């Protein structure tokens, strides 16, 4: 049981770190321009130098929603990590990790919404870019989506042990 808890704790910390990297790094999409490679993400567009990501007024709300849900996922993941540590030492068997699992599943839902909005609205061609593909930040977001779901379910299952 102790090895299982340690493993879940390590995966949870890795998920928090990957969520930070995924949200902060501006490599959700990568493409080629006449002057070289460029990338863009939730915040900036980088092509040699980084500048504010320019979106049309109809897409601005979608971008803000994706940004907000990715930030919320980080917050909920950190709260779940703190709750895991608190519940590990304060609650008796049978009552542990219920809140932690629920918070982690809320984190999972926030990642799902944020990454889905970005996928639906912002993948594809940007003006001036050709050969676009998903970058490592986008892939990390979906890996965190899977990890947060697995961790949330494991916390709920561990509640009974």
From TrEMBL:
Family to which this protein belongs: Belongs to the PMP-22/EMP/MP20 family.
PANTHER family the UniProt entry points to: EPITHELIAL MEMBRANE PROTEIN 1, EPITHELIAL MEMBRANE PROTEIN-RELATED
Gene expressing this chain: Emp1
Topological relation to the membrane, as annotated: Multi-pass membrane protein
Pfam families per the UniProt record, alphabetical: PMP22_Claudin (PF00822)
Chief location of this protein within or outside the cell: membrane
Keywords: Glycoprotein, Membrane, Transmembrane, Transmembrane helix
Protein name: Epithelial membrane protein 1
Gene Ontology CC: plasma membrane
Residues spanning the membrane: 7-30, 68-90, 97-118, 138-158
């Amino acid at each position: 049981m102790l090895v299982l808890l340690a493993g879940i704790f390590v995966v949870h910390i890795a998920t928090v770190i990957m969520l930070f990297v995924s949200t902060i790094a501006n490599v959700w999409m990568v493409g080629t321009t006449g002057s070289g490679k460029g990338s863009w993400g939730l915040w900036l567009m980088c092509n040699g130098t980084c500048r504010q990501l320019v979106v049309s007024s109809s897409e601005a709300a979608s971008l803000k929603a994706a940004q907000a849900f990715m930030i919320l996922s980080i917050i909920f993941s950190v709260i779940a990590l703190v709750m895991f540590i608190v519940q590990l030492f304060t609650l008796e068997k049978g009552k542990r990790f219920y809140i932690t699992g629920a918070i982690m599943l809320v984190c999972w839902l926030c990642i799902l919404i944020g990454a889905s909005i970005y996928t639906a609205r912002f993948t594809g061609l940007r003006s001036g870019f050709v050969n676009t593909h998903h970058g490592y930040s986008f892939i990390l977001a979906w890996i965190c989506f899977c990890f947060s779901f697995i961790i949330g379910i494991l916390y709920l299952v561990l509640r009974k042990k």
